[in-house]
Design goal:
With 705 residues, this protein is an alpha+beta fold. Helix 4 packs across helix 7 and helix 7 packs antiparallel against helix 8.
Length: 705
C-alpha cells in the first residue's frame, strides 16, 4: 500500500469511528498490546477478551481495548485490561500495594480489579455511587492485600482492571471502563533480607513403585507457595507456557488456603525458602490425596518420597477415562512429551485436543488428525479433534475421532457439512457447553438432534451437571449420549470432568470411541459406577416381554478426599424411580431396584456428592414386546411443541455480535455469514419442524397442527 493511501485509510477510519481505532488482536484470547503506560512502574499493558482464573470470570463483550482521548487526556477504554508491573518495582513480594485508578466518569460505572495475590486470585469490585456522578474524572484507590506480583497472571501480568459488566453473564451494555490514569504505590520500607534457601527433592511413586506424574502443592500454613522451579512440567496455557496454575475447583482434602499448583513428571528438585510447609500430591479421582509436613532448612536438602495410594483401580475393572474437550496446540510431534505428561499427572487416559474454529480461522492447531495425530505413551492417548463449527448464535460443537479438520467458511452457520463429514470419517459429533447452557445452543439442538446429526451432549463441565436437554430429547425418542470435558485451559484442569467407557482387553483409541458410541459409559468428575441390568454390565439395549421384571443394581463410589456421598438415583423417562441416601462418611453406596415396566423406556443412574461431585450413566433402553419407541408417554407432544417454537424463533432471529465470545475476531463476518447460510438453514428448520410435527401427531393423531 502506498504511504499516502495508508494515511488516507487511517484518516477515514478515524472519521468513521472517532478515536476508536484499535490494534490487531492475536491468539485465542484476542491479545492486544497497548502503548499506554501511565506509571513508570507499568512495564507492559495488554487487553484480553477472557480470563477464567482471576477469581472473577471476565469476558469482554466489546471490541478490543483502545486508546482514546477524553477531555484532553489519553485514556484506555475497554472491558478487560492487564498490566505487567516492572520487576524492579516489585517482584515476588507479599505486601499491601495501593493502586490509584482514575476513570472518565461519564462512561464508567465501576470497576473490577484482579491481581496476583499471594494465595488466591482475588477480585475487588467497586461500584461508583451517585456522589461521583457529576465528576469528569473519578479516582478510586484500591488496597491490594498480600500482593505477590510474581508475573503469574496471563502473559506474565500482575493486575487487571475490568469494566463492572465484564463478567461471565452477558451484561446490559458492554461493561467497559475508560481508564485515564494508574498510579501504583508501595509503602517505603527497608529492603527485605534475601530469603534463606534450602532445597526440596521430591519423588512420587505409584502403587507399583514406579515414578509417576502428579499434581503438586507446597504451602505454608497461610497458603503461601514458593515459586515453582524449572523441574516442573511446562504446561501450555493458550499461546503461552507456564509451570504453575491456580486451581478453580478444589477437592475437600486439598489445602484450605493454597491454590497454586504445579505438575511433576515424578521427580522434582527446587530451591525453597526455609520454613514449615505442607506437601499435597494428587493424581485424579482414583488416587487418595497425599498430605505430609516438610521442613526446609537453610543450606540443606529435604527429601520427600511420596507413595500414592489408590482409592480404586478403574482400568483394572475395564473402566478407561477420557476428556472430550481440551485445547493444547500441537504444531508438531515435539509437543507430545510435555502434553502427555500433563495428562498422566491428572490420570486421564484419552484426551481430545480440539483444534478450534470460528468464522475467521482456527486456533490450537494440531499437526495431524486420525491415526497420524495420535500420540501414545503406555496406556495414555492424546488424540486430535475439533471444536468447530462454533458460533454464539447456535452453539459450539465438537468433532471426535476425525480423520481431518473439517472447516468451511461458506455456510459456516450451517453445521451439516461438518457433522456429515465427521460421521463419514467414523467420528462422533456433538454439542459443547451443554452443562452451562451457553451460546444459544438450544437453537442448534432443536435443529440438529431430530435430523440425526448429534451423537452426544457435553452435559458435565465446571462441576455442573445439566440433564434438561438430554432428558427432553430422550423423552421424545431421540437417542443421545452424555459426555463431559474440562475445556482446559478456559476452565478447569485436564480430566476435571471425564467420560469413563467400559473396555475389554487392552485399550486402544478405536476401542475407546467404539465403546463410547455403542457400549456402557458414564460421565463424572470424582465418582465411579458399576451398573447392571438383569445382571448384565455390557448390553445397552434389552428386549423383554410384557410382565417381565427388570432389576437394576448399581455400586457408586466416591473418593472421600474429594467429596462426600449424598445420594444415588435411578431415573426412567427422567423421573426418579428409586433413590438411596448415603450414611455419614460412606464412600460406597449400593442401589438395587426391581420393577416391571409398563412399556418401552430408557433408564439411567445418576449420583451426587454433598459438594460438587456428580455422575450420570449413559442411558440403557428397555424394549417391551419389540416396541422400539422408548419415548415418554404423554410428554412427547409438549416437548416437540417447545422445540418447534424454538426453531421458529431461530428462523426469525439475527445474530448479535455482542453475544459472540470472540467478537474481536468475527464481528465483521457475522452478518454476511448468516446471510449466506440462511437459505439452507431455513430448509433444515422446515425439516426439523416436520419431525417435531410427527411427534405431536403421534400423540394426538386427530390433530393436524
Amino acid at each position: 500500500m502506498k504511504p499516502w493511501l495508508y494515511v488516507s485509510v487511517i484518516v477515514l477510519l478515524s472519521t468513521i469511528l472517532g478515536d476508536q481505532v484499535w490494534a490487531h488482536s492475536e491468539g485465542p484470547l484476542g491479545r492486544v498490546e497497548h502503548d499506554w503506560r501511565p506509571d513508570p512502574a507499568i512495564k507492559q499493558t495488554l487487553s484480553l477478551n477472557f480470563d477464567f482464573h482471576a477469581g472473577g470470570y471476565y469476558i469482554s463483550w466489546s471490541p478490543p481495548a483502545r486508546i482514546v482521548k477524553r477531555e484532553g487526556r489519553e485514556c484506555l477504554a475497554g472491558a478487560y485490561m492487564l498490566f505487567d508491573v516492572d520487576d524492579r518495582f516489585a517482584f515476588n513480594i507479599d505486601e499491601t500495594i495501593s493502586v490509584d485508578l482514575t476513570f472518565y466518569r461519564p462512561e464508567t460505572d465501576g470497576l473490577i480489579l484482579s491481581y496476583d495475590q499471594a494465595v488466591v486470585p482475588t477480585p475487588v469490585e467497586v461500584r461508583f455511587d451517585d456522589s461521583s456522578k457529576n465528576e469528569t474524572f473519578h479516582t478510586e484507590t484500591v488496597e491490594l492485600t498480600r500482593a505477590r506480583f510474581a508475573n503469574r497472571r496471563y502473559y506474565g501480568t500482575d493486575l487487571a482492571v475490568g469494566g463492572i459488566g465484564s463478567q461471565l453473564s452477558h451484561p446490559d451494555g458492554n461493561g467497559e471502563a475508560v481508564l485515564c490514569d494508574v498510579k501504583i504505590r508501595r509503602a517505603a520500607m527497608a529492603p527485605a533480607a534475601p530469603a534463606a534457601l534450602g532445597s526440596l527433592s521430591l519423588k512420587v511413586i505409584d502403587e507399583h513403585g514406579k515414578t509417576t506424574p502428579a499434581r503438586i502443592g507446597l504451602y505454608r500454613t497461610d497458603g503461601w507457595a514458593p515459586l515453582t522451579g524449572t523441574d516442573a512440567i511446562r504446561v501450555q496455557r493458550y499461546d503461552e507456557y507456564t509451570r504453575e496454575l491456580p486451581m478453580v475447583t478444589v477437592p475437600g482434602a486439598w489445602s484450605e488456603k493454597g491454590r497454586y499448583a504445579f505438575f511433576s513428571n515424578g521427580t522434582y528438585t527446587s530451591q525453597v525458602p526455609e520454613g514449615e510447609y505442607q506437601l499435597f500430591v494428587m493424581k485424579g479421582p482414583e488416587y487418595r490425596i497425599h498430605k505430609s509436613p516438610v521442613t526446609i532448612t537453610e543450606g540443606k536438602t529435604a527429601s520427600a518420597s511420596v507413595a500414592l495410594e489408590r482409592f480404586q483401580d478403574l482400568p483394572a475393572r475395564g473402566w478407561v477415562s477420557g476428556d472430550d474437550h481440551l485445547h493444547i496446540t500441537r504444531a508438531s510431534p515435539a509437543r507430545n512429551a510435555e502434553t502427555v505428561a500433563f495428562m498422566q499427572a491428572e490420570d486421564v487416559h484419552l484426551t481430545n485436543m480440539l483444534q478450534v474454529g470460528n468464522l475467521k480461522g482456527t486456533n490450537f492447531k494440531q499437526y495431524a488428525f486420525g491415526n497420524e495425530g495420535v500420540h501414545q505413551k503406555d496406556n495414555f492417548f492424546v488424540v486430535s479433534g475439533q471444536e468447530s463449527p462454533r458460533t454464539a448464535h447456535r452453539g459450539h460443537t465438537i468433532g471426535l475421532n476425525t480423520k481431518s479438520f473439517h472447516w468451511q467458511r461458506n455456510e459456516y452457520f450451517f453445521y451439516d457439512h461438518a457433522s456429515d463429514l465427521i460421521h463419514a470419517d467414523g467420528g462422533l459429533w456433538g454439542y459443547a457447553h451443554v452443562a452451562v447452557d451457553a451460546f444459544n445452543l438450544k437453537y442448534g439442538l432443536a435443529l440438529d438432534v431430530p435430523r440425526g446429526k448429534v451423537d452426544f451432549l457435553e452435559m458435565l463441565q465446571f462441576a455442573t451437571l445439566n440433564t434438561s436437554y438430554l432428558y427432553d430429547f430422550l423423552n421424545m425418542g431421540f437417542k443421545l449420549l452424555p459426555s463431559a470435558g474440562s475445556d482446559y485451559p478456559y476452565v478447569g484442569f485436564p480430566g476435571e470432568e471425564r467420560v469413563y467407557v467400559h473396555l475389554d482387553g487392552e485399550p486402544t483409541v478405536s476401542s475407546w470411541f467404539d465403546t463410547f458410541k455403542n457400549g456402557r459409559s458414564y460421565i463424572t468428575n470424582w465418582m465411579s459406577a458399576d451398573f447392571t441390568v438383569n445382571g448384565d454390565n455390557r448390553t445397552v439395549e434389552f428386549d423383554i416381554s410384557s410382565g417381565d421384571p427388570v432389576t437394576i443394581e448399581t455400586i457408586v463410589k466416591l473418593n472421600p478426599d474429594l467429596d462426600q456421598l449424598d445420594r444415588v438415583e435411578l431415573v426412567g423417562h427422567g423421573e426418579i424411580l428409586h433413590a438411596v441416601a448415603a450414611g455419614e462418611g460412606a464412600t460406597e453406596l449400593k442401589l438395587s431396584h426391581t420393577f416391571t415396566p409398563n412399556g418401552s423406556m430408557w433408564l439411567a443412574v445418576r449420583a451426587f456428592g454433598k459438594g460438587k461431585a456428580a455422575l450420570h450413566t449413559a442411558p440403557v433402553y428397555i424394549y417391551v414386546d419389540s416396541d422400539r419407541d422408548f419415548s415418554a408417554p404423554g410428554r412427547g407432544a409438549e416437548l416437540a411443541k417447545k422445540y418447534r417454537d424454538i426453531l421458529i424463533e431461530f428462523r426469525n432471529s439475527t445474530p448479535d455480535p455482542a453475544d459472540d465470545f470472540e467478537r474481536f475476531d468475527v464481528e465483521d463476518l457475522i452478518a454476511p455469514g448468516w446471510k449466506q447460510a440462511k437459505p439452507v438453514i431455513g430448509k433444515a428448520v422446515g425439516q426439523s419442524i416436520g419431525i417435531f410435527d410427527d411427534v405431536i401427531r403421534a400423540e394426538f393423531p386427530e390433530k393436524k397442527d
